[in-house]
Amino acid sequence: MSDLPNIEHSIAIPYQLRVLFTEKAFDTQNPLLRHVLCAKESGARRKAIFYVDEGVASANPQLIAQIEAYFQHHRDDLNLRGIHLLPAGEPIKNNTDYLKQIYSQIEEQKICRHSYLIAIGGGALLDTVGFAAATAHRGIRHIRFPTTTLGQGDAGVGVKNGFNFHGKKNFVGSFAPPFAVINDFAFLETLPEKHLRNGYIEAIKVALIRDASFFDWIESNADALNANDTATIRELVHRSAQHHVTHIATSGDPFEMGSVRPLDFGHWAAHKLEQLSDFRISHGEAVAIGIAIDTIYSQKAGYLDQASVDRILNLIQKLGFATYAPELEHESIPGENTTLAGLEEFREHLGGILTITLLKEIGQRFEVHEMDTDLILQSISLLPR
């Protein structure tokens, strides 16, 4: 035993989580990106490597040329070190070859901690590039350009990066706030219908756990959303992003040291459902079903009234989401529903204490530390099909 005293000291590290809104960010007359890249230092050309979702590049055939023209226009301040295309969708997070490729390009271009990795795409690409940025040199500045409603309103505005491993979603990852998130609304104009809708469900989720008036607004504007009304979509994305960022910044647990994860309402079943469908079911579609399960469970457990359940399920369906998938009935061995394994995986993900968010009413959530598996199965059986 040593007689020397232990050393303990609190370390407070300030972070600024910035979500910036613009349109046509790569128009040479739009100064936003240049200002962001040159914000910290002057007198040196800022190096940047871009990683672009192949689907986004295909839907926006002028994008690569626009990025090149933007950096050429600002060549006194900016130094473009490459534009690389990566596949779209969840499979990119299952293949370490893509991570190795990014690390190699960082080394080849001598990208340092004062340089930038810029990702343009959906949530899977943002996760992969963000994880590479957070781990190369113990942290390279990272800028996200989410190109989906899901990314701009939820996944792209947070502080997490993840990569799938051992067959589990986001088994490896990091907490690393991006240097900036730039929501360019122009990308939503070329978004396929399915991906345009996916962000709506995360807006419903955050409304259910935080803001009943926002839920009312989504309900009142469902027809406009279904008609792809530009102003309505932009307002939904902005309000959803604001709620997500506010929760991260003010919850007292931005890096999830505890086990309470209200922003993961409906996600324990959703993550498992994505795996069981081999990611045929998108994240937004899976979350819609997961919310439906936990909403019905909240009512069956005696917490939520039936009228609220009906409103929630009706809105989910009105916006074009299914509330059931046959994978929910999968059995790994006869008599054992595989979906229930999602609870154990979620507990591991949380750090050992199962914590599930449920609803007392629309806009008011609470947490439980155990769930009745028979009641879960009853809730699944009651899902509208």
TrEMBL record:
One of its GO terms (molecular function) is metal ion binding. Residues 199-330 form the 3-dehydroquinate synthase C-terminal domain. Its EC number is 4.2.3.4. InterPro entries: Dehydroquinate_synthase, DHQ_synth_fam, DHQS/DOIS_N, DHQS_C. Keywords: Amino-acid biosynthesis, Aromatic amino acid biosynthesis, Cobalt, Lyase, Metal-binding, NAD. Signal peptide: none annotated. The keyword Cytoplasm does not apply. CDD domains: DHQS-like. Its cofactor is NAD(+); Co(2+). Residues 86-197 form the 3-dehydroquinate synthase N-terminal domain. One of its GO terms (biological process) is aromatic amino acid family biosynthetic process. This is 3-dehydroquinate synthase.
